[in-house]
Design goal:
By secondary structure, the chain is mainly α. The chain contains ten helices and no strands.
Length: 208
């Protein structure tokens, strides 16, 4: 599933969508080498001229599909959001009870923290998100669809539950979980693990 529908695609934020195979391959190279540059030098040091050289792509081609480095970063963020949503969607499909939904959410949170430990790109992306409204809006759309998916899955097993309340509390849990992971990365390993364990307990303590 893709976060942005074709009708809602904003080229100023995400750049042009390549239509031909050759163009798709070039865009993939631009994104691949942009991610490597971010992991190596940090998101604020990203330079599309340098990316073009490393990717062996004409600079004009880069700007043909991406009007700014912000568009490259937004497209990379979009891919991260989509891949994470696909993982949650597959896990949700295996749930057989309301308790399974909560367990799946808690374990997905712990797994996300473990996967972020060496993820320089994700840390850089989160840092950029603090100051970039377009990335914040993408993140909000991602949270909204995750909340919708988890709410629908939960309500399937608890049809008498208040769907609006469940959705609002899931949104709260999503925000709390993301904040906990970001904070844990700034702490020592033992302190980070302790924070994640405490947050996991909170996930179980908040009624849906």
């Amino acid at each position: 599933m893709t976060l942005i529908d074709a009708d809602d695609w904003d080229e100023e934020i995400l750049g042009r969508t390549p239509l031909q195979d050759r163009s798709r391959r070039r865009v993939e190279r631009i994104m691949e080498f942009s991610r490597k540059a971010i992991e190596r030098d940090g998101v604020y040091a990203l330079n599309l001229n340098n990316v073009a050289k490393e990717a062996e792509v004409n600079v004009a081609t880069v700007y043909q599909f991406f009007p700014s480095k912000g568009a490259v970063i937004a497209r990379l963020a979009l891919r991260e959001f989509d891949e994470n949503y696909d993982r949650v969607e597959k896990a949700a499909a295996k749930c057989e009870s309301a308790e399974d939904v909560r367990n799946m959410f808690a374990e997905a949170f712990v797994t996300a923290h473990r996967n972020s430990g060496d993820a320089t790109f994700l840390r850089e992306l989160w840092a950029m998100m603090e100051a970039d409204r377009d990335l914040q809006r993408l993140n909000q759309k991602d949270d909204d669809r995750l909340a919708r998916l988890l709410t629908e899955t939960y309500i399937r097993f608890s049809p008498d539950a208040d769907a609006d309340q469940v959705r609002n509390r899931i949104l709260l849990l999503l925000g709390m979980s993301a904040f906990a992971i970001r904070t844990a990365l700034t702490l020592s390993e033992s302190e980070g693990e302790e924070l994640i364990a405490e947050t996991r307990q909170l996930i179980y303590s908040i009624p849906l």
